[in-house]
Input
Amino acid sequence: MQQFIAYTIIGLTIGAIYALASSGLVLTYVTSGVFNIAHGAIGMISAFVYWQIRFDWGVSAPLALLIVLGVFCPLLGMFIERFVLRDLGAANEVTRLTVTVALMAGLIGAAAWIWPPDARSAFRGFFEGNVITVLGVNIGMNKIIALVSAVIVAVLLRYLLFNTRLGVQMRAVVDDRDLAELNGARPNQISSASWAMGSVLAGYAGILLAAEVQLNIIPLTLLVINAYAAAILGRLKSLLYTFVGAMVLGLLEAYLLWTSGSSWFPKSFFGFNTGGLRQAAPTIFLFICLLALPQAKLRAGMVRVAQRSREPKWSTSVLGSVVLIVGVIALTALLTRANTIFLAQCLLFALAVLSLVPLTGYSGLVSLAPLTFAGLGAVFMAKLPGNGSVLTLVAAVAIVALIGAVVALPALRLEGIYLALATGAFALLVSTLIFNQQKVFPNGSLDVPRLRFFGVDFQQPREKVIMLSVVFAAVSLMLVAIRRSGLGRQMVAMKDSPLAGAMLGMNLLKVKTVAFALSAAIASLAGALDAGKVPPDRYSLDSSLPILLLAIVGGISSIGGAFFGGVMLGTNTVMATAIPSLANIAKVTPGFIGMTLGRNVNGVSAQIGDGFRPMVEHRPSVIVAIVGPVVFWTLTTVDIVSNWQFFGLLFMWALGTIGLLPAILGGTSEMRRVLVPLTIAGLIAGFVSTTVDLPTGGRMLCLIVAATVVVQAARRKMEPNAPAAPVHSPDFAGLTTPFSARELQEVDDAIGVVP
Amino acid sequence: MSIDPILELRSVSAAHGSIEVLHNVDIQVGKGEVVALLGPNGAGKTTTIKVACGLMRPTSGSLHVAGQDVTGVPANALARVGVCTIPEGRGIFPNLSVRDNIIMAARDRAGIAVIEDRSYARFPILKERRDQLAGTLSGGQQQMLSLARGLATDPVVLMLDEMSMGLAPLVVAELYEQVTAIAESGVSVLVVEQFARTVLGVADSAVVLSHGHVRFVGPAGDLDDETLSRAYLGS
Output
């Protein structure tokens, strides 16, 4: 009995912290319409800031708490609202979700950068050591504070949202921003206020939680994810159900902790350790809550042309594939062994990103688990008989595709954020229950065999890279074929308007299942072809996030975008390995790149594509554009130009020259007079900056500066008369207050209206 | 002595991105006057309203309220000084209760009771439904809600965009009775309608737009069928 009371109280305090975190989540969702995946990360970073102020600088607890919750959290929330989310008006739900995923990745990276693990000391809760005895059980003050503040916050929030004008305005802004403005509300300030409040709640929960689990980045971030389960139980609306859900979740966790310690609890199940079950309990709860949600209503599509999905042309796709393969063959002739391995890494990332193209790009379904399927692919490649034969690969891919379809089936009733969360929960479950098993990843690493193909075993990195480029090209062409077929049109139609699709007799369930299976199959290729010893955390949820981010940043609905995203991610990883001083920056770049989506919802490749479109449509330019790299390559193979100089020339050619070709070849002579010297100067700058003896980072910096100068100068030349932005008129001095009765009377008198 | 009109658009041009959809449009709404803004689909009526209420900034020209140049002033500031707009498509917050919708119009805490009383007095049905979600009201009731809420703020100018869209003729007649009453109390009204017949009965003057140009300005009575059909059919 004594034990039961003790565990009940533990459960209630855990529940109280979840309640604080999830009510903050519900607040931001209800008041800004954005489901903040980064909510946990905000709590995590606040706990670190609190630790810094309280324990590292030795400020007293109340003052430290005031600084974190009164200054840091509100400012962080307002900053996020202003600079990350406000410009997202035209973006769809996928993009909005991704931006908060980016935020999460960015904050995790920032925390790992600022507070390396060895620099952290113990985190103590409030009044540590003081205990209160309730019914014979000792409870720490930190837990009492958590419980009391959760109740107070719940009551206050309820009052704020439903009984104050600010609360009504907050909810109104989500419904219709323009209309709220027409009713005299200030939407920007209101969103800002609600994000400030949401951050404060996240931060407070983070601090309370850190006292219980200490300062660990990933557990702190993910533990608050558990609070999502509670918020989902409240359908992201009801604060009462959210509170109840948080308490149930807390108790569930406490009782599992109790029972799993008892002797009768099985320690293993078919050779699988059941220890992970307790850790996975909140995730399972989240999964069940999501599945218990009612079927998503079919909605008619919103007409939004901000995000485009162009049907790929066969000619460009085939040309692109050939250029990729030939380019890789030519490039590997120059590269060192180490760089070739990096290139292979880039292509594997690109393949993982490509798996999201049919799922997220075509069908509009968000998945947070691309690498989970890659991990499963690796597991089957290693465990199935055949030791890397082509048949093993085919079997592994087929099994993972099947798993993708089966796992997707229950989740298919869901949409948008709910679907994304379900895939996230799936990723966490597979990580804790399968990948972390001794049986699956013995001693924390899995030995994936190399693929053997008619006697070739791809032992040399060069062979492997060429094989990967062929696989990437083949999968891409298959996707192009699918996109241009009836199935592809159905996928895009489903993304635009599921309702209209269903009315036309489309089987949405079938289309969704196929999209999931296809995506799982492509992702499993990325895992199965990644031969060597791999650790399980390569396939964890937090590794999957950058994949989704860069897919969306690159431009999810196009293959070029996927390639771009993969290469960017690969370069980032390579940079972190090759230049240790940049490793910290590499941790935060995917997150910060993702956050810029607000300004560019179509992805980078679409923007670059727009810049290059005039070139593609101008035949002489295409020829010159291809001849350039061939000339550089030839010069390099006969050792006139060094590898670095080749890279510099190629870089300037791609960024500073190709886009200007139509203007040079087809433009006026006056334009040519400026642009020709400019491009030549750019190429010389690229050549020189890679010739001087500088460290790698310095050379890259020179190249980027040179390219920027050329592009900016050319842009100024080509758009000489860009329209100036309209200037805001301050002529509003007389109308800061409503008209008074007397003023209205004067107007009435002046025009002779009898009131 | 002449007085400035309450609401005036002076040679306003406006563009969606790089496409100009309004070309030098002049509109004046005097005190207590009902002006009908007519025109076919895509004529620029809704854009005109968006400029007039401050949601859209004109690319050239200026917006004046009671003689003051208010070009570029945000819509919420205009709303607070009495420019009341009921946008196309009902203009309610569907996920808020009827009462919450009405509270949105209150400028401060004390104002809530006053606004509620006035709204319920105008349309008693709203009082019965006050705890219902506004999105679950019928179309006519939704339009009553937005009209009641707008009028409870004592506006100086009232702008109505396509109020009759999708409503039964009887309901439309009831709503326009209210509009006439409002105008008689001295509020200036700018009504946008695609179907001229519904509004010409209550309007003092009319402006006909087509392809972003003003085709006719004058007393509502002077607007003959030929001018209208020319604007609508482009012949």
In short: Residues 2-32 of chain A form the longest helix (31 residues). Chain A is about 70% helix and 0% strand. The beta strands of chain A are 131-134, 137-140, 268-269, 272-273, 446-448, 532-534. Confidence is low (pLDDT under 50) at residues 300-306, 720-736 of chain A.
